[in-house]
Fold these 2 entries.
Entry 1:
Amino acid sequence: MHSGVSTHSLNVWYGRSQAVRNVSLNISKNFITSVIGPSGCGKSTLLRCFNRMNDLIPSARVEGSVLLDGENIYDSDVDPTEVRRRVGMVFQKPNPFPKSVFENVAFGPRLYGGRSEDELDKVVKTSLEAAALWEEVKDRLEESALDLSGGQQQRLCIARALAVEPEVILMDEPCSALDPQSTARIEQLMVQLKERYTVVIVTHNMQQAARVSDFCGFMYLGELAEYGTTTQLFENPKTELTERYITGKFG
Amino acid sequence: MTGSLLLGLFTIAAGFGLIVLVILLLDISLDGGRWLSFHLLTDYPSRFPERAGMRSAILGSLWIGGLTAAICFPLGVATAIYLQEYAPKNRVTSFINLNIFNLAGVPSIVYGLLGLGLFVQLLALGRSILAGALTMALLVLPMVIVASREALAAVPEDHRLGAYALGASQWQVVRKTVLPSSLPGILTGTVLAMSRAIGEAAPILAMSGLLFIAYDPSSPLDSFTVMPIQIFNWVSRPQADFASLAAAGIIVLIVILLALNAAAIITRDRYQRRVKE
């Protein structure tokens, strides 16, 4: 199986406290991999290693390697902005820019320049279609993105991430601020997205992980306690810790 | 009982500023109202009160206001961007911060003397509009920096992260998300700083004294006078008519300053409404 992203002996510190401990895992291309675990277990920190967002936190220090298509993104000659172009991210709270729907999606492509307005129109349309939002917003592309509903805003953020044609899409608890209906739409969307992208999702919601993901990792106190197929992890967990967590005995 | 007494006291305290402003406006309107006329705006100064106008002073003030804004806007915004977005949190940064607040507290006459020594004499700009505007820019720079920093700090961190996640460089994040969102706040601060610069007399007085200007300044190297100095000039004359003329001049100055402040408030309100949506 061709590997999308893999980590080797990954450690992350914030100042003196260690948030991720010696994590090694392979994330398969064109599958959805979920990471679950109690609050503060380091799952979001792990996710932010995949696009070097931890670089933005002055106290954060990363050791080990993260390979994207075989290349270590933490090598000194790698430009983090290039990494973030290839590895998109959707955040917990929808964070559209205070611009029009169109400008939100065109934001990424405009950063790199060299596209005509016609091409931008096309990119915006295909990205919104891929994010299952086009039908709802095609007549209001010039309206402020802040006028959309929460669920629409989150799909807009997904479209915005897709517009730069990434290989991997990271989602950090993308539904935690949404109602059940919007959540269902986003989950549906994730399943469609894996045809073209590798998706990694961090979630608090175990049912969500069970519903959408193919592979699942359980993190506890910074360590990857268990990693396997979602079916195996939920139906036949190898460690007692995982079993206790997924049966809700602690959380 | 004490409750309503206190409420009354607080209401009076809150209304005090308004009452003073009304008294001030009434007093100068009574004094200078009948001297308000179109030729006050269009005529040059004269030693005959009925012929004297403040044309050159109004033009001088516009020059000073505009040029001051043109100088302190880029300088202030660049400083604010550096301090807010780029500067590491260390001693040098907090030292710079502290001194910006110190600068804001330096009396304006001191800036005038600095301008006289530095711009008028050392840089040999003479008593020109440019020297005046540079001096005023130094005076209001702390205001622009502080207002701009507040506007930059008000941009949600979410927006920065969203742009970074799309592969934006730090400058692109600032240029394409942070600055557009904070521009109204920055402009508000700049307009308020401009109105301060237009209202100040002391630094210009220290720098160039009372000049009699009977022409339209046409380049930044021309000598000039400004409205507050023209008013000061009229007040200091013995004839009663000039005192009334000064009151009329004050009305013109206050109207211009209130208009600038109103423009600043309107910009800010519009911005706030847009952010709430």
Entry 2:
Amino acid sequence: MDELKIPSHAAPSPVIAPAGSAVDGPVFDTKFERIGPNEMLLNLGPQHPSTHGVLRVVLTLDGEVVTGAAPDVGYLHRGVEKLSEHRTYPQMIVLTDRLDYLTAMANNWVFCLAAEKLLKVEIPPRAEYLRVIAGELNRIASHLVFFGTFGIDIGAYTPFLYAFGREREKILDLFEEICGARITYNYIRIGGVMADAPAGWIDRCREFVHYMKPIFKEYDDLLTYNPIFMDRTKGVGALSKEKAISYGVSGPNLRASGFDYDLRRDAPYSVYKDFTFKVPLGQNGDCFDRFLVRRLEMEESLRIVEQALEKIPAGETMGKVPKANLRPPAGEAYAQIESSRGWQGIYLISNGTDKPYRLHIRPPSFINLQILQEILNGYKVADMIAILGSIDIVLGEVDR
Amino acid sequence: MTHEELFKEIKTRFNNVEELRAPEGQIWGPELQIKVPPQDIHGVCEHLKNSLTLAFDFPNFLTAIDWIQENRFEIVYHLFSTSHQHTVILKVSLGRDNPEVASITDVWPGMDWQEREVYDLFGVRFQGHPNLKRILLWEGYPGWPLRKDYVHTRDKYDSGLEIGLPPPPAETHG
């Protein structure tokens, strides 16, 4: 009987599995005859609530200890990159909504940034501020989903009702007012934004910021400093800084491992230079740190929204872009932004026609998910759910 | 490090690399772009990662472009250095018939799935990849969808109007 192998670049796992279980051979091979003599094969997903969508993970187990994990992605593949070659630039924004559907604003934004780099169009300041407000509110909404679902993964159901059902709903109401949609916004357009904020919207945003500020204390009491929650997440699924970097992990996951880099601060795009905010960092890169970084980021995003609402200038919301027949000049552009999951990038090749010649999406979730096969080994199945939840993936963007 | 210094540093070790500049009338981003011959790519990548002055430790992304009119694929490596915070784009040209290039998963494990994705959608083979299998599509999928000469096989899911296909054959039951 052949034995299972871990990839050559896999480092020793933090908790050593019993001898004779973790062995060499491609860990991805899911055929039954490749399992070691003491091992069992567990198929997690694709229909499983704790995989946050249609992710399948094939686990080999020794008792309850994970000895190998092979994520299997692609169940939600819609061929967005191919579709883009048959869509005009404005039509393409609609498809980007469907990538990371919890942070659709960021997807709209990065696609428009790439197209604007080719078009060399100037964005009116009011549009930039509206983009920042929308983008940061969307980041809070996305982290609220993480906050709630991560609690469910660990076994705490109540925080979900607060974060998902109460606060996120208020943000979605604000979005509904400004662009008519709650999930797929199509709000940020090439050259600016779809429309100016309706009358009173800025004030309602201020009310929300005022309402949201004391809520985090409630969240911390509910979940963050809950002893059971801390026991389940501290020291679990630790990812070192060096390993995170060599895997191209970005965003909150990278910062949780202690690497201090945020595109909004260190390679600022849009008008992020105008705001002061802190970049929360973790130390150990374990599940708790990944959780805490996101929890603290929500507060910082709220600060940015508050400053943007203070400073927002009056004026146009759309730059000088042709209304029809948009043809960016030939060339290539790469734009990337700090989305709530990491570095969301668009690599755009134009040949001067009204459709992209080639469009590549740098998917932060897809790249972050690779570390799963690296950090799972040696943990119990229940911890595996916590680790998967803490990476915070969105399958719409993993599979594209 | 300026672009010139960066390029010189690489050029001293690998004589065959060339700096790419935007052709007349095209707009390119500000990143330094380097054309690397296919046989050198693994060595260049190892040097880029291990040299202390370059230290490209962060594999940002990898993708491919099908330049069908020039009968070549272009593999694009976008690399970033977390210590020096500089960026470089490497480009490797491969012939469209039987495209193969050395895998760099042993340099940056983060390129693993991305190489599989390029294999899956373009049919470019990465020699030395530990597990070169399709990742987004299923094994046995006909063709390589992101190639420009890919012909979509009509199935029951598409209306076909948007890509100009003839109407579907009448469904037969039984």
